[in-house]
Amino acid sequence: MQVQELVGLVPWTFIAQICNLFIQAYLIKKFLLKPVNEMLEKRRAKANAEIEDATKARLEAEEMKASYEENMHRARLEASEIVTAAQKNAAAKSEEILREAASQAAAIKNKAEADIAREKAKAVNDIKNEIGGMAVEIAGKVIEKELSESDHARLIDDFISSVGETV
Q1: Residue 24 exposure: Cα atoms within 13 Å on the Cβ side
Q2: Most exposed residue of 4, 46, 51, 103, measured as fewest CB within 10 angstroms of its CB?
Q3: Would you say residue 89 lies in a domain?
Q4: Which of the pair, 79 or 10, is modelled with greater confidence?
Q5: What is the extent of the structural domain holding 21?
Q6: When comparing pLDDT for 31 and 99, which is higher?
Q7: pLDDT digits (tens, 9 = 90+) for 107-142
Q8: Whole-angstrom Cα distance, residue 164 to residue 155?
C-alpha cells in the first residue's frame, strides 16, 4: 500500500493555482473593480457638483437677503421721510388756518366796531332830532308860559347836556 501524503506540495498544481489566482485578480480588476471605481468616481463628482450648487445657492440667497434688508432699510427711511414731510405740511397748514381765522376774527371785530360806531352815531342823530322836536315843544311851552329868551336858551342847553351825558 501506498501512503498518501496529507500535506504535500505538488509543483505543477501549485504553479497552476498561482496562475489561476493572477488570472482571477486581473479579471476582477478589469471587469469588476474598474466599473465600480468609475461608478464611485461619478457619484463623487455628482456629490461635489451638488455641494458646489448648494454653496452657490447659499451665497445667492445670502446676497438676496442682504439686498432685501438694504431695500427694507431704504423703504423705512423713505417712509420716515414721507411721514416727517406730512407732519410738517400738516403743521404749516394748521398755522395758516389759524392765521386766517385770526385775520377773519379781527375783520369781524373791526366790522362790529364800525357797526357799533355807526349805530351810535345814528342814535345820537336820532336823539338830536328828538331833542329838536322837544325843543320845539319846550318852545311852545315857553311861549305859553312867556319865558324870557335867556331862560329858553338855558332850558335847551340843560336838556342837551343832560341827553349828551346819558349817551
Answers
A1: 6
A2: 4
A3: yes
A4: 79
A5: 14-166
A6: 99
A7: 999 999 999 999 988 888 888 777 777 777 776 666
A8: 14
The three cell numbers locating residue 109: 371785530
Rounded distance, CA 155 to CA 138, Å? 8
DSSP-assigned letters across all residues of 96-124: HHHHHHHHHHHHHHHHHHHHHHHHHHHHH
Residues in the chain, overall count: 167
Categorize the per-residue pLDDT at 6 as very low, low, confident or very high, splitting at 50, 70 and 90. low
In a domain, residue 94? The reply is: yes
Q: List, for residues 80-108, the tens digit of each pLDDT value.
A: 999 999 999 999 999 999 999 999 999 99
CB 166 within 8 A of CB 124: no
CA distance 120 to 65: 81
Look at the chain and report how many structural domains it folds into. Answer: 1
Quote the pTM value: 0.41
Within-domain flag for 8: no
d(CA 93, CA 25): 97
Residue 125 lies in a domain: yes
